[in-house]
Amino acid sequence: QVQLVESGGGLVQTGGSLTLSCAASGRTFSGYPMAWFRQAPGKERECVAAITWTGGSTYYVDSVKGRFTITRDNAENTVNLQMNSLKPVDTAVYYCAARSVKGAYVRIGNYDYDYWGQGTQVTVSS
Predict the structure, then answer these.
(1) What is the DSSP pairing of strand 10-13 with strand 120-125?
(2) d(CA 59, CA 63)
């Protein structure tokens, strides 16, 4: 079975850093776009970062540009999100997502993705 498992979340103070990891199993995701989404209480799920299978093209929502970095290692079948200069507004459950259709471009829509991890909580205190 295809499974995505996130890890690395936790509690951090404003200005701190965390690295989220997504371990995929059941298949390789080479050729498929992947992304990180987040959802805070009372807010819509949003794509914070996305990446093509080659890693040659990435997307970041404006609020995290310059602070977050998405990378993937297709040989290890993992996707990571390095988060620096964290703010309280970054507090959310973060989800790893994979698309079931190959493509050369990043995808940022919630409905562009078919496989989802269980989520990992990130809490940023002031």
Answers:
(1) parallel
(2) 12
